[in-house]
Every structure is written in C-alpha cells, then in structure tokens.
C-alpha cells in the first residue's frame, strides 16, 4: 500500500490496490465503478500534470481546465495531443467513462454494476495503468512551470501577493 499520497499517481496506485483487493474478494458494488473511473482519471491527470509543457497563459488555462474534468475521453484526447509519444488503447477505458456519476447517484442516468461491468472496470484500469507506466518509463519529467513562471503579457502588471 502506498504510504505517502503526494501526487495523482500515488492516489491512483492507492485506489488501484483497494479496487484489486475488492475484486480479488469477489466484490460487486457500484462504488467500484466510480473508483475505477477515478483511478483512470488520476493516472491520466498525473502524466498531464508532470509531463505536459505549458508555453503560454492560454495553454495553462487549458491544462488547468482539463485537470478539473471527470471525462476520460477528454483526458485521453488531451494527453494524446499534448504528450509527445503517448499512446493509449481508448476502447477499454471508454467503456467505463461516465461511471463516476452514473454509479453514485439515483436518477435517469444511474446504473447498477454487475460482474461483467466489474470485469470492464478491471480491464480499463489495467490498460490505462499499463499505458501510463510505459510512458513514464520513457519520459523525463518536464512540467516544472507554473503560471508565475510564465512571462507577463506586454503591458501586464505583475501582482505580488
């Protein structure tokens, strides 16, 4: 079990271990669907946070916006478009996109998870994790910039807090 939770990756690994323990104990529960989507989100958000390079305030705003989404499709598309050499098999992961909401609350969009869905969740998590780990092994961390590090726009005053 991960002892320190400091990054999206640490949280993803912690949740992955929890999901696999529940899976190994033959659990079938709606929360597992939400957790599965959250795990994939955190893996993708980790590589976006750590490996994407931001060169402008607009790019920083786009990156910050994507880090607030729960859409796996949007996260995969952003990663594919902004991370050099990142490849992912989208199909298994798209199968669970939407579980974050549809498995947690009642309503027209809610679903009840069954064993087949749990298998889809496991496949998606393992596929996403594998792609992210493979990418991390090949890439040096690039993301050291923050909005404060960006050069000010012409005629823009720098505000000190």
Counting DSSP H or I runs of 4 or more residues, the number of helices is 7
Rounded mean pLDDT is 88
Task: Work out the number of β strands.
Answer: 0
Assembly of the depicted chains? single chain
The H-and-E topology, N to C, reads as HHHHHHH
Biggest sheet statistics: none
User: Helix share of residues?
Assistant: 55-70%
What coarse outline follows from CA principal-axis ratios?
globular
Unreliable spans are: 144-161
- Beta content comes to under 5%
Q: Could you please describe the fold and organization of this structure?
A:
This protein is an all-alpha fold. 58% of the residues lie in helices and 0% in strands. It is built from seven helices and no strands. It has helices spanning 8-24, 30-51, 57-66, 72-82, 90-94, 99-102, 115-138. Helix 1 (8-24) packs antiparallel against helix 2 (30-51) and helix 2 (30-51) packs parallel to helix 4. The longest helix is centred in the C-terminal third of the chain and has 24 residues, at 115-138. The chain is globular and about 45 Å long. The model is unreliable at 144-161 (pLDDT under 50).
Summarize the structure.
With 161 residues, the chain is mostly helical. The protein is 58% helix and 0% strand. The radius of gyration is 18 Å and the shape is globular.
């Amino acid at each position: 079990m991960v002892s320190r939770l400091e990054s999206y990756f640490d949280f993803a690994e912690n949740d992955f271990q929890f999901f696999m323990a529940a899976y190994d104990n033959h659990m079938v529960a709606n929360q597992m669907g939400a957790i599965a989507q959250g795990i994939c989100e955190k893996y993708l958000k980790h590589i976006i946070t750590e490996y994407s390079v931001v060169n402008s305030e607009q790019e920083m705003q786009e990156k910050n916006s994507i880090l607030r989404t729960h859409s796996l499709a949007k996260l995969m598309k952003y990663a594919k478009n902004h991370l050099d050499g990142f490849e992912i098999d989208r199909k298994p992961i798209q199968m669970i996109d939407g579980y974050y909401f549809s498995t947690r609350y009642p309503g027209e969009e809610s679903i009840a998870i069954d064993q087949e869905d749990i298998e889809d969740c496991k496949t998606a998590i393992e596929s996403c994790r594998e792609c992210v780990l493979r990418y991390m092994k090949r890439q040096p961390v690039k993301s050291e910039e923050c909005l404060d590090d960006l050069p000010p726009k012409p005629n823009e005053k720098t505000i000190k807090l």
